[in-house]
């Protein structure tokens, strides 16, 4: 029997609502839209939004889009498809009244609409819509949405969304003089847990007359958020520093090999990086025109090619120019500078002076949010790649015969020659290896820098600083140097600004070299005194 | 030790050529009618004056590189600092004729909403002070830098790289608007120098003659230093630094003295350069400029002084011609020049000419032998 009674009541309710005979707050508010007064419209929006009526969302949407029409006390919604429905009954309306006029909006009404939309979509079934609504309410702090939001919190199953909704509720309660002290303290606590910039702004902008038992915890919460944010931003800066450091590492390890093994200052090293970046560009162009499906793998195809191209150019340079200049480091410096000018101009002549577009494969775009950190995938890939390249090079130096010979030549060229190492060949190979590493650095840098003929010039001074700071001929020194300079640069940046930070760092390195003319990790032994 | 006269054959040739230029160019400009093929046109005079100031810069590089083995890749910084000192004087001379017509503040400061002159701009309206600063600022920087570097025995490529870092840091610094040197745009729109309108033909001739005189003076100063006992020690340091130190010479003091002197010469060159070109901006600090100055010396012949002048003139004339006629090729030529000179002509034009001359002499006297190989470092 009880079931039957319930059923009947529901049926009755349904009949009443659809027929319009049952007059709730929603129906009462409707004529206000037709009154052609902004303040009436605004009040009506609030009432409609709080009513919980199924038509309230379409109605407010229609109002926002200028599709809410009024005529002689009656209100109609023009559907996006063009049909008219009666806002009171939700039924299609046959004969169209002649004097239909859209309900007018001003900015105050628009704000009310925004707030109401937030409240109304809170209960919608799509998670994304609810998240958006929670965010809108959090921003608008519209007290009218309070009831809806409490309803929504009770219904919400997703813990993430629940947090967002609670933050929205807290934002309303915090500044609301009518709310109870307990509620407001709860709001302070919730906002403290949320702990972002918005929460900080809310907590630190309480109205002037707020009672001290709210203000004090709010201040404390604001302080704790501030220090948390500072910590996150310091961590973020460290991450940026590591990312810059790995870029420097990539650019400098090749230089560390050529300088360390051969004592050759290769000013054309930056141009090797540039050639690697252009190799990537060419590979991508070919893939784009012939096999677009391979685009995601373009960087992996470019890596060995860049190594071969720049390594080849390196060996060529060594055989044609540098081998005549051994033992004359200053002359080598000048000759390689000349080579760098020639390479730059050659690339400019072939590819033009403009920046070339190198695409980022889909798997490298996007970012990982980790607490307050935002780690972009392309930077992450470069950090990993730099360490992988560093590790590989370390293994090559340690466990291959080429590495063994190179180390022998580094330590004592003449002795190495006497026991049968062909130092000439090792020189050429070492130069090729250093240049090849620069080339693969170019592949990585093409992802974060402009690919232009001047690409290399931007890195050459920094790479030299890294090598000189870390100590020549020592790969670990290069790693430590690159990371130190990268992190120091990024930590200085927020205080001194990007340019001044860099200047300070350069001055610091210049002073450091006075103290330790051979860098952090100097080679020991007789070789250095030669 | 045989006492060498400062006025040897090379000096006499250099001085008389410079004197002839200083007389001939203005005469050809003023007295010869524009239609004649011998006429030196008005725009050529500041161009030639610019070359002469570059030659002075090359001379200062040669003094330390050619005679003391210090390869500075940052000499452009001293040049630019001297230029900025002169530029600041010229800015103050604009007075109320600037776009914003402020009697004291240069335009860019008005633009940045600055209310008063920064302290380091005071005094620059007085020419003797500005001229002193064009010498003192590069000199002091070189002194401090050299004192730090030479005392801790930073040598060879390490020194080259930190001098490059120095000029790079200065470039970044001068690009900043907050530095108070006009930022990106630098200092320009000059009107007067010592009461003379800077654009007038007469002023340009005066500046040209002054550049030639400064170059001659700089050359004689370098020649005097090189021929003195100090110069002999410098050459000893260049050829065997530790041996010189073991002989009891305070190597770092000698290096510091000559480095500072050289920086001041570069400052003078910069101060002469700015009024003739009409602008100084942070681009002058670019590391590439400093290296270019080194290649002038290398092309002309390192360690000869006259070669530095010759190299600066030849390379810059070539640059002007190429950037006008074949702009695409200039960097190829310049780059090729670096490689060619270091590989095949390590003693530059002057050295090669000398070799040819001596070879010819030997052929003439029937004593044919291979040319003596050049000992580089």
From TrEMBL, chain A:
Signal peptide: 1-23
Subcellular location: Cell membrane
GO CC annotations on file: plasma membrane
Keyword Ribonucleoprotein in annotation: no
Pfam families: BPD_transp_2
Alphabetical keyword list: Amino-acid transport, Cell membrane, Membrane, Signal, Transmembrane, Transmembrane helix, Transport
InterPro entries: ABC_transp_permease (IPR001851), ABC_UrtB_bac (IPR017779), BCAA_transport_permease (IPR052157)
A GO MF label: transmembrane transporter activity
Topology in the lipid bilayer: Multi-pass membrane protein
Presence of keyword Transmembrane helix: yes
Residues annotated as transmembrane: 238-260, 297-317, 329-347, 380-405, 426-445, 465-488, 495-513
Biological process terms in GO annotation: amino acid transport
Family: Belongs to the binding-protein-dependent transport system permease family. LivHM subfamily.
PANTHER family registered for this protein in UniProt: ABC TRANSPORTER PERMEASE PROTEIN, BRANCHED-CHAIN AMINO ACID TRANSPORT SYSTEM PERMEASE PROTEIN LIVH
Protein name (record): Amino acid/amide ABC transporter membrane protein 1 (HAAT family)
UniProtKB/TrEMBL annotation, chain B:
InterPro entries per UniProt: ABC_transp_permease, ABC_transptr_urea_perm_UrtC, LivM-like
Record CDD domains: TM_PBP1_LivM_like
Domain of life: Bacteria
Membrane topology: Multi-pass membrane protein
Coiled coil residues, start to end: none
Keywords: Cell membrane, Membrane, Transmembrane, Transmembrane helix
Keyword DNA damage: no
Ranges that cross the membrane: 12-32, 52-85, 126-150, 157-175, 201-222, 253-274, 294-317, 329-349
Keyword Membrane set for record: yes
Pfam families with a match to the protein in the record: BPD_transp_2
Subcellular location field: Cell membrane
GO molecular function, one term: branched-chain amino acid transmembrane transporter activity
GO cellular component, one term: plasma membrane
Protein name in the entry: Amino acid/amide ABC transporter membrane protein 2 (HAAT family)
Species this chain originates from: Microvirga subterranea
């Amino acid at each position: 029997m009880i079931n039957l009674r319930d059923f009947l009541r529901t049926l009755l309710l349904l009949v009443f609502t659809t027929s319009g005979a049952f007059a709730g707050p929603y129906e009462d508010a409707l004529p206000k839209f037709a009154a052609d007064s902004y303040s009436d419209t605004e009040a009506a929006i609030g009432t409609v939004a709080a009513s919980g009526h199924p038509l309230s969302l379409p109605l407010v949407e229609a109002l926002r889009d200028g599709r809410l029409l009024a005529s002689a006390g009656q209100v109609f919604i023009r559907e996006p498809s063009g049909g008219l429905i009666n806002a009171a009954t939700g039924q299609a309306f046959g004969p169209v009244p002649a004097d239909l006029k859209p309900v007018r909006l001003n900015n105050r009404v628009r704000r009310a609409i925004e707030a109401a939309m937030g409240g109304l979509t809170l209960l919608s079934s799509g998670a994304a819509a609810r998240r958006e609504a929670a965010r809108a309410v959090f921003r608008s702090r519209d007290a009218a949405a309070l009831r809806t939001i409490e309803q929504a919190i009770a219904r919400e199953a997703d813990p993430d969304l629940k947090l967002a909704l609670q933050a929205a509720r807290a934002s309303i309660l915090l500044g609301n003089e009518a709310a109870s002290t307990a509620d407001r303290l709860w709001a302070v606590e919730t906002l403290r847990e949320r702990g972002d910039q918005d929460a900080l702004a809310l907590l630190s902008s309480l109205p002037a007359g707020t009672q001290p038992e709210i203000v004090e915890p709010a201040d404390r919460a604001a302080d704790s958020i501030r220090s948390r944010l500072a910590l996150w931003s310091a961590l973020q800066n460290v991450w940026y520093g590591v990312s810059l450091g790995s870029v420097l590492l990539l650019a400098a390890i090749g230089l560390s090999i050529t300088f360390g093994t051969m004592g050759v200052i290769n000013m054309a090293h930056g141009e090797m990086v540039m050639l690697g970046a252009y190799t990537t560009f060419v590979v991508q162009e070919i893939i784009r025109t012939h096999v677009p499906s391979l685009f995601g793998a373009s960087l992996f195809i470019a890596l060995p090619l860049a190594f071969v191209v720049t390594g080849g150019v390196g060996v060529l340079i060594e055989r044609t120019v540098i081998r005549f200049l051994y033992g004359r480091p200053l002359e080598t410096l000048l000759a390689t500078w000349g080579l760098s000018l020639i390479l730059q101009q050659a690339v400019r002549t072939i590819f033009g002076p403009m920046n070339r577009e190198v695409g980022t494969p889909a798997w490298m775009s996007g970012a990982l949010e980790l607490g307050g950190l935002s780690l972009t995938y392309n930077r992450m890939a470069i950090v990993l790649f730099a360490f992988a390249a560093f590790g590989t090079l370390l293994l090559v130096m340690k466990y291959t015969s080429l590495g063994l010979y190179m180390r022998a030549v580094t330590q004592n060229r003449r002795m190495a020659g006497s026991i049968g190492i062909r130092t000439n060949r090792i020189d050429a190979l070492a130069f090729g290896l250093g240049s090849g590493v620069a080339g693969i650095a170019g592949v990585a840098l093409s992802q974060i820098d402009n690919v232009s003929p001047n690409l290399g010039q931007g890195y050459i001074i920094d790479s030299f600083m890294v090598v000189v700071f870390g100590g020549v001929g020592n790969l670990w020194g290069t790693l430590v140097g690159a990371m130190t300079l990268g992190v120091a640069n990024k930590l200085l940046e927020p205080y001194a600004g990007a340019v001044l930070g860099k200047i300070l760092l350069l001055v610091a390195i210049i002073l450091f070299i006075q103290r330790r003319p051979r860098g952090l990790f100097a080679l020991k032994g007789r070789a250095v005194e030669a | 030790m045989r006492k060498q006269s400062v006025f040897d054959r090379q000096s006499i040739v250099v001085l008389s050529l410079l004197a002839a230029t200083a007389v001939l160019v203005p005469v050809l400009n003023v007295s010869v009618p524009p239609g004649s093929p011998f006429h030196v046109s008005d725009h050529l005079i500041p161009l030639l004056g610019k070359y002469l100031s570059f030659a002075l810069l090359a001379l200062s590089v040669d003094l330390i590189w050619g005679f003391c083995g210090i390869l500075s890749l940052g000499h452009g910084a001293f040049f630019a600092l001297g230029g900025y000192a002169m530029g600041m004087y010229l800015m103050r001379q604009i007075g109320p004729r600037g776009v914003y017509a402020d009697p004291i503040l240069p335009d860019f400061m008005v633009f940045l909403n600055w209310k008063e002159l920064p302290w380091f701009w005071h005094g620059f309206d007085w020419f003797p002070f500005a001229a002193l600063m064009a010498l003192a600022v590069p000199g002091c920087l070189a002194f401090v830098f050299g004192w730090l570097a030479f005392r801790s025995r930073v040598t060879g490529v390490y020194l080259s790289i930190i001098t490059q870092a120095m000029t790079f840091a200065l470039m970044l610094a001068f690009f900043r608007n907050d530095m108070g040197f006009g930022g990106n745009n630098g200092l320009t729109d000059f009107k007067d120098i010592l009461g003379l309108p800077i654009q007038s033909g007469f002023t340009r001739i005066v500046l040209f003659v002054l550049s030639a005189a400064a170059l001659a003076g700089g050359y004689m100063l370098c020649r005097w230093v090189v021929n003195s006992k100090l110069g002999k020690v410098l050459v000893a340091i260049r050829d065997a630094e530790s041996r010189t130190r073991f002989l009891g010479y305070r190597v770092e003091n000698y290096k510091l003295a000559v480095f500072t002197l050289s920086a001041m010469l570069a400052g003078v060159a910069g101060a002469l350069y700015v009024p003739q070109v009409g602008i100084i901006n942070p681009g002058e600090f670019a590391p590439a400029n400093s290296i270019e100055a080194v290649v002038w010396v290398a092309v002309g012949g390192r360690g000869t002084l006259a070669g530095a002048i010759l190299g600066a003139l030849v390379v810059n004339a070539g640059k002007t011609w190429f950037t006008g006629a074949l702009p695409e090729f200039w960097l190829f030529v310049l780059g090729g020049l670096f490689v060619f000179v270091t590989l095949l002509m390590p003693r530059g034009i002057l050295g090669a000419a000398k070799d040819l001359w001596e070879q010819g002499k030997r052929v003439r006297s029937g004593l044919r032998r291979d040319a003596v190989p050049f000992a580089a470092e």
